[in-house]
Structure formats: structure tokens, C-alpha cells
Amino acid sequence: MKLLLVDDHQLFLDGLTALLSKSDNIDIIDTVNNGKAAFDKLSSGQYDVALIDLRLPIMDGFQLLQSLSDSSSLVPIIIVSASSDPIDIDTAFNLGAMSFIPKSSSGETILQTIEQVMLGQKVFPDSDMDKLKPKAEQWASQHNLTQRQLEVLRLMRQGFSNQAIAEQLSISMPTVKSHVSAIFQALGTQSRSEAGKKAHQLGLD
């Protein structure tokens, strides 16, 4: 198995490389420290899986995921991040990530995640991360939003246009506009920025 590790902290890369090198299933581990270099390497199609941080120079993890999706890359991506923000988690999955695990994960957890992702499974290996999604879902229910509208709201808060939201969620533009109108009505707002602020005030983090 050939892996690509992407992080701008060399110490983390060195530690993760040493950890994963102990696996008999991993033959080659390459590392890069920015999103552009990662895209160039992953575009070759020579890697079996990539472990990527979100906070990267030149091209961040979200931009990298979007670029890989646009180029029809088939390399499975695992996000390894210090972030526990539900919006980051959902955005990463909407952009094609196969897993999102904390940097504090054990070596055993990371290896298990790699194996499951290689089998085509989407993985939430950490129990604390699993708890984040139900919490967000409960928030949506409390504020009379459907799960799809919650997804649209999250992408709106990330700055996605209606067209970009339609592409990310594979829905039509009229459907997006309908969801946006429903969000405005549910939150009592009249603009995207106002809806984002209101959602935060109401407890959606």
C-alpha cells in the first residue's frame, strides 16, 4: 500500500510516518506540507490513500478536496485534523472525504480507519466524533429544519454560493433556493449572513 501524508507540521509528519511504517501492509509513505503539492502528487493516481490535514498553506484541505473532486480523483481521502467543528466535519464529507478523525487518534485507530476506507467504507472511528452529528440533527429538529436544510445552512455558512451548494449536494438550483427560503423563514432572517449569525446565536456551532 502506498500512502501520502499531508500536513504543514514536520514533527507530526515524522511521528505519523514512524507510526504507520510499523504496518506490514504499508510499503511506501510519501509526505508533503502544502495542499498544492498534495494535489500534484495525488493527480498521478499512484497512491492508495491519503491522510490530509485541513489547515494547509497555499491550498487548504477543503480546497484540495474540491480540486480532487473536480479532477475526478479516485484516491480515498482521510482527514486527520485537530478540528472538532461539526461544520468542518460535514463540509469535508460533502466534498468527498471518506473519514474524519482527530489528530489525537491512536496508531491502531488510524490503521483500522485506513483498512476500512480501503474497503470503500465511510468511517467515524472516534465515539466522540459520532456524538457531534446527532447533536446537530437535534438542533435542526428543534428549529424546524430538515436534515437537508441543515446541510444547506452549513454550506451557506462556509460561503458556498447556491450553484456550489447544488453541485455539492447533487440537487437542482430551484431546490437549493427553496431550502434557502425555508431556512430564512425558520430562523426569521432575510440574508445569508444574518442566517449564519442567527444559527450561531441559537447554538449551531
Notes on the protein architecture:
With 205 residues, the protein is of the alpha/beta class. It contains 11 helices and 5 strands. A 5-stranded parallel sheet has the order 2-1-3-4-5, sandwiched between helices. Helix 1 links the parallel strand 1 and strand 2. Helix 8 crosses helix 10.
β-strand amount: 5-15%
Structural class: alpha/beta
- Spatial strand order of the main sheet: 2-1-3-4-5
Instruction: Give the CA-based shape.
Output: elongated
Q: Order of helices and strands, N to C?
A: EHEHEHEHEHHHHHHH
DSSP helix fraction: 40-55%
The number of helical runs is 11
Query: What does the radius of gyration come to?
Result: 18 Å
- The average pLDDT is 88
Distance between the termini: 37 Å
* Low-pLDDT ranges: 127-132
Query: How many runs of DSSP E, i.e. beta strands?
Result: 5
| Major pleated sheet | 5 strands, parallel
SSE blueprint and pairings:
Layout: E1 2-6, H1 10-20, E2 28-32, H2 35-42, E3 49-52, H3 61-70, E4 77-81, H4 86-94, E5 99-102, H5 107-118, H6 127-130, H7 132-142, H8 147-157, H9 162-169, H10 173-187, H11 192-201
Parallel strand pairs: 1-2, 1-3, 3-4, 4-5
